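Hi D.,

Good news: the full-assembly prediction came through. Inputs first.
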Amino acid sequence: MQALTNRAKPVDRAPMTWVEKLYLWNILKGMLITLRHFFKRKATVKYPEQKRPFSPVFRGLHILNRDEQGRERCTACGLCAVACPAEAITMEAAERKKGEENLYREEKYAARYEINMLRCIFCGLCEEACPKDAIYLSETFAPANFQRQTFIYGKQDLLIPDPVKEPELYAKAVGERGKKN
Ligand code: SF4
Ligand code: SF4
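Then the structure:
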């Protein structure tokens, strides 16, 4: 039979000598391989304690942004939903009432805002389409889960912490991509 490569080795079927039956040389060979790898640079990291730096173009979980006074930027215009090729965004608009000027920057706001992370392809078109800098894709990703329902992120999951009331949480959540926005 013709071999596909010339790397095939003929099998030695000669009976083993008593030295070979001790397997000492084979054990030593195995330990030497382990020892060699011990001093090599590791290809893995101890996730989640250690994390790899993200690429500057990485696009992860969405964040609904607030302005410097902590007001929600989103005006529920729907442009992100129209731009989304995966039809992953759903929202319901509501009118801002008198006295709510400290909560919502515009006269209209998203009373409900949902992104289905199972549909999302993290293309960033929603971020590009938004005229209010209200949405951007951060450097985090959706954690694994067994329930499909948990991948539908509501407004409470997406909204960034208030920079006035919770400055530390805000600074932690904003990330490198948020600083550029
Ligand atoms: S990143 Fe792309 S697919 Fe995901 S919600 Fe935004 S526009 Fe839709
Ligand atoms: S996130 Fe931006 S594009 Fe989407 S509804 Fe809000 S303001 Fe409009």
